[in-house]
Amino acid sequence: MKTTLHILTFGLLMTVFSCRQPNEKKNVAAVTTDTLQTAIDKKEKERLEKRRKIEEQDKADSLRLDKVLQDALKIANQNIAKDRFVKKYEVMPDSIPVSVEINLDYHFTKTNPHLIIRRNEPSAIYIDIYSTRDNRFEKVVSHEQWTMTYVNDTIRDINGDGLNDFVVNWYGASGCCLKAFSNVYILRQDQKAFSGNFEFINPTFSPREKIIRGVCYGHPGETEMYKYKWNGEKVDTLEYVSYEKNDNGEKTGKILISNTEPFGDKFKILKRLNNVPNEYKKIEGYDWFTGKL
What we know:
Blueprint: H1 2-77, E1 85-91, E2 98-105, E3 114-120, E4 124-133, E5 136-146, E6 150-156, E7 165-171, E8 180-187, E9 194-201, E10 203-206, E11 211-215, E12 225-231, E13 234-245, E14 251-258, E15 269-273, H2 286-290
Antiparallel strand pairs: 1-2, 2-3, 3-4, 4-5, 6-7, 7-8, 8-9, 10-11, 11-12, 12-13, 13-14, 14-15
Protein name: XAC2610-related protein
InterPro entries: XAC2610_dom
């Protein structure tokens, strides 16, 4: 009788346990899911709040800098009849110092004056160029450069058409390798407007040839060189130069001249040489290409 009672009691406990266990698992799973969802929602709210603050700050910065620019334009407009005009000053909108330079001159041609307005603040440099048209200033270039990366800017004939162009030189703030950049704005034949922005990495310009040679991004001795040619407001790729490598990735001693960088389906070898062509040996960064720094 006791044995039968024990068996019935054990069976009843097992039934209760088996009925409770799935519910307990469900409860634990539900709590875990709820906690995870709460954490996700919290992160998403934090992300959206951070984004909102960034957008608000960007808008405030944009309004602040635009006011500085409009004030500078007012001063320039008061002197638009002059052949040359220069004014430098500093303002402190929102307690942030901004250095301003207004420079009206025949910067690019001898016949058409251009106005250059520079705004320098702690984080960035803004350069706006205007041509004169119908006794008013018309914006033809607008360039923004992070202060940390800015090197200089120059006015020179880059593409060999006899007209001075605008070039901003800067150096990349991150990355392992040689990364000197130039952003080029070509003065158009009307001698007033400019082309869009052409960006080159590690370039050496040869206006006489209408050629740009340069070194691509990569580790010393492991990257390529390029050769481009100006074609109006376009740039044509002429060739790439690289070291030939065997299946083990070892250099064979040969130089490849190709239509593209040495990878991808379109890669085609144009020439196989024993030495690098002399035209490349004097460009900026050639020692980076060879790896003999």
